Amino acid sequence: MTIYAGTGHRPVKLGGYSDEAVMMVNDFAVSILKDILPRPSLVISGMALGWDQALARAAIILEIPFIAAIPFNGQEIAWPYPARLQYKNLLAKAASVEVINPGAYAAWKMQKRNEWMVERCNILLALWDGSTGGTKNCIDYAQSLSRPIEPLWSRWEVYKCALQSRSSSSNH
After folding, report:
1. What pTM value is reported for the model?
2. Rg from Cα positions in the chain
3. I need a surface site. Which of 11, 31, 57, 114 has the fewest CB within 10 A?
4. What is the pLDDT of residues 85-95, one digit of tens each?
């Protein structure tokens, strides 16, 4: 069984919160899960906005079971209503929902969730631009366990550029 977990940026570093930007990240996630070898038999998503949820959506589209690894109860509580509704719909389609640290928000719970995911995956899919923060912390933890990491940022950049050039050429 090949289990992929994902770590990556929130929408602000991936083009924003517009429907178009979210769709672009989702389509990229589908292309990654469809083309990657070995094929995933299970995906673990940390369910944050951005790359995490894009992986969950891609798993649903490709009919790959996924685990929703929730860092704490109420992860979505401060999100706008449409984002909370989408989150609830994603959770309903998960093969399993795991609340890693019960109770309310605490910053350390995000890292504990990351560690939980890394400890259970064979390969980490990292959509990371090299900046500091939670994604880097997750990658550092994966490296400390010698867990294979598939870096995706350069592929993401190429993907974005290709879409933008197609879009601008179709406007002329």
Report:
1. 0.95
2. 15
3. 31
4. 999 999 999 99
